[in-house]
Amino acid sequence: MSDHSHNPSLLGGFIDELEESFIAIILGLMTIITFVNVIIRYVFNSGWWRAFEGVIGIEAPRSMIWALEATSFLFAWLVLFGISYAVKKTANLGVDVILNMVSPTARRTLSLVAAAICIAYAALLLKGAWDYWAPFAGFDATSGRWFPTGFADSRDQAWYEVDDIRIPEWLRFIEPIFNQGESYEKIPRFIPYFILPFGAALLLYRFCQAGWKIWTGHQESLIVSHEAEDAVDDVAHLNRED
Q1: In 73, 84, 185, 231, which residue has its Cα 20 to 30 A from 196's Cα atom?
Q2: Do residues 140 and 134 make contact, with C-beta atoms less than 8 angstroms apart?
Q3: 48: Cβ–Cβ under 8 A, 6 or more apart, which residues?
Q4: What is the reported pTM?
Q5: Helix, strand, or coil here: 57?
């Protein structure tokens, strides 16, 4: 079972707040955008509303063509944030039959091996995520098949745009930086795609953090603990006493 009694570092506390705040904001934005889009599509653009537009004096708003794409990007951000958040909360599901059969020393060893594998996987994921995202931001991808050995020249794809989401005026300052002064009509892809390297880096940090907790004895494994089962037993015990 995880032990969260130790004080988090300043960096760890900042990342904790960052994750939880972003997850809440993303969920809220997805809900609002979807709700407004449904209202616009099925209420304002319905035949009965258009029939009474002149009478009620309220013009039907334009359809939110960009809503589906925006929701898709937000969902991708939510998933990648949620992965690292689940690692932090030890909320990943797993089979612990073998762990429960072996001694505490062997359990700790197996957990450290699992953590090392997860760290290696997250590092490879980070390399792949950077290599995919970097050209969209005008940066170079890394060289090397498995591990970065340097940087290789990549074709500049910073002018690539998303399909439907128009760029807001306050983002125009990025045009001379990433698009050689040319104007964007839609949001450049490197902005929504940024979650790929950022989410992979956050996942790597969380696996390293979890591995360190296992090494220092503050955590037993990477998978979900039995706190829920303990809570159910406590409630059942209270009900029997009543």
Answers
A1: 185
A2: yes
A3: none
A4: 0.76
A5: coil
pLDDT-derived band of residue 237, with 50, 70 and 90 as boundaries? low
CA distance 81 to 22: 8
Establish if 142 belongs to a structural domain. Answer: yes
Backbone angles phi, psi at 182, to 5 degrees: -75, 145
Q: Is 133 left (phi over 0), alpha (psi -120 to 50) or beta?
A: alpha
In this prediction, residue 204 carries a pLDDT of 93
Alpha helices, H only, the chain: 10-39, 47-51, 53-56, 67-88, 97-101, 104-133, 175-178, 195-216, 227-241
What is the tally of structural domains in the chain? 1
Question: In this model, does residue 2 exceed pLDDT 50?
Answer: no
